[in-house]
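User: My advisor, Dr. K., asked me to get a structural model of this assembly before our group meeting. I'm new to this, so sorry if the format is off. These are the inputs:
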Amino acid sequence: MPPRAVFVKQPMGHPLGEPFKPQQHRTILLDTFHALETIKEPGAIIDLPY
Amino acid sequence: MRRFKNRILAKIFTRFPSLLEIAVKGKGTSIALPAQIPWTLFKKPLKDSVMAIVTTAGVHLKTQEPFDMLDPDGDPTWRELPSSTPKDQYMITHDYYDHADADMDINIVFPVDRLNELKNEGIIGGLSPFNYGFMGHIKGRHIRTLMEKSAEEVSLRLKSHDVDVVILTPG
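Assistant: The format is fine. Below is the predicted structure of the whole assembly, which you can bring to the meeting.
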């Protein structure tokens, strides 16, 4: 169990999104950083809306 | 033959995730859980934080030994991935998910370019000189090796590079 996690509704093999879509990758990373800064409960998982 | 079957299943389950849910339903799990969740409150500003990527997507360098796909229990070893590696020197060895898209753009499982861009923009403090790759299909006798040897080895290396944040990415 990781200390904190985000979940994305992407197929296996696509945790950061689609190939050659840097804005998607960036969005997921920035939302991941937001979770890093705001999660206070060990083991919490945030479902991202995409 | 087993590798061919695993690759076909990986393609099917990637395209039809609901089939994967059906396939694993009721099979239980052999996941070993630590006694407690490792936890440190994150306090350092992002703009000052050094980040590293640890991926289980089977990423390694073309010059490194590929992960063992013949052992049905997987491969608990790891590969060190210098952040300065040219993109065409990465490759993926992993039969348990369809990595055709990741083969074209490694950033969808190993976002090294995106993190460099965020560093250049001052959003993060920096990228570790080294990242780490695992192959995530681990079961049976290799779970203990992963937990008691491989994980500790990589943790010590991350610590020696003064890494503040590790981004874990699956395949």
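One thing worth pointing out at the meeting: The interface with chain A takes residues 10, 13-15, 17, 20, 33-34, 37-42, 46, 57, 97-102, 104-105, 107-109, 111, 113-115, 117-118, 123-124, 165, 167-171 of chain B (CB under 8 Å).

User: Perfect, thanks a lot.
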